[in-house]
Amino acid sequence: MSANQLFARHALLPGGWQDDVLLEWDDAGNLTSVRPGAEPGARVVDYVLPGMVNLHSHAFQRAMAGLAEKAGDTQDSFWTWRELMYRFAGRITPEQMEAVAAQLHAECLRHGYTSICEFHYVQRDPDGELYANPAETALRIAQAARRTGIGLTMLPVMYSYAGFGEQPLTPGQRRFRTDPELVLRIVEALEKQRGPQIEVGAAPHSLRAASAGQLRELVAGLPACRPLHIHIAEQQLEVEQCMEALGARPVDYLMNQVEVDQRWCLVHATHLSDRETAALAASGAVAGLCPTTEGNLGDGLFPLTPYIAAGGVFGIGSDSHVSQSPVEELRWLEYGQRLVRQQRNVAVDGACRDVGTYLWQQALRGGARASGRAVGSLEAGRRADLLVLDSAHPNLDGVDAGEVLGRFLFCGNDNLVRDVLAGGQWVVRDGRHVDQDAIARNYTQAVRALRERSQP
Ligand code: ZN
What we know:
Layout: E1 5-13, E2 16-25, E3 31-35, E4 44-50, E5 52-57, H1 78-91, H2 94-111, E6 113-120, H3 136-148, E7 151-158, H4 180-189, E8 198-200, E9 203-204, H5 212-221, E10 228-232, H6 236-246, H7 250-257, E11 264-268, H8 274-283, E12 286-289, H9 291-296, H10 304-309, E13 313-316, H11 326-341, H12 355-371, E14 386-389, H13 401-410, E15 417-422, E16 425-429, E17 432-433, H14 436-453
Parallel strand pairs: 1-4, 5-6, 6-7, 7-8, 7-9, 10-11, 11-12, 12-13
Antiparallel strand pairs: 1-2, 2-3, 4-14, 14-15, 15-16, 16-17
Helix pairs in contact: 2-3, 2-14, 4-5, 12-13
Bound molecules: zinc ion.
Residues 56, 58, 119, 231, 267, 319 line the site of zinc ion.
């Protein structure tokens, strides 16, 4: 019996659930064969899903998740939350960043994410100077990903301005300062990291923080086919300021300045006109939805129903890491739509009427595209990224395969992910990351030091 085999009584393949599936992978972590109707000749498990892609992360924010939940004297908003975030970002060291990222990655793996896209903007030292290696902090995130086994798409961020109209950066933003030339240098410094588990793209932070000329320069300088991510239309105020400064709504403006295609992931894209919704769907770009963060920050709700109807591609991300679970992300995505529409079972299409299956498959499709990596489905040639669910849990006892995702996404809060294979390595067994205790010790030490230094 080869170690690189698994027999699933039920596995979710690109076309839906299949029975008696023998999965095989090579030592490089790529699936070599996925065969339904096979004979059990390997370790036998009941339910197997493809691992999910977390398409939007700022790893350091894991350290402040849950600390911004007290009301201040004025109306709290995204913009007051951002002040706390700047205090953390101003002080964190590269070592602390690595410790926090490792904890985050291990948690994400335990909950079913096998890939993550890091939108990485804390790139200078606390004084705003470059590190000896300009990719120092990015390499720390890559190191955390290697240690934990999660697949990574590293996106060094271009961040030049404090607001529309090319406003100069504030002192709180000094660690973020980059321009196209520096981002491309960081990308170059990361080239050696690239491989089946790590891809490198780039991310203009937002239309607030980058000019149109810079956008074009970055796109022209980045190697072809690499992923490009941008925050867009997250807040109403941002849309209003964009219209005032640039004369167009954000997605309209972006699409007028650069060719937005399958390379692009538009993160949030919360506030869209009907025309923008249709144009984004037609572009092939991914809408990067982060429902728990968008809920936490009071952003608003993405127009999911018309976007699905127009054939749009979407994925999910945990962004500020108030949650590390794709279950919670997808549950909120669906529930937000139910609440605002006063309807049930919203996220479906003509071909797939099961909400859980539709959400999981579509988030895989969008997440894989946004990651620029060969992930997102159980097929030969893709990465061996899969989840074994806990079929001994009462929620899954004896259920038909077609009901598994409904139970997984919409019933209770126990983590039903038992074992996780990422890039052909078993990194979670019986619900625990294989290096969980040491990673958690490093994390708690780092966060204690960081919180002491972050008192205002
Ligand atoms: Zn973000």
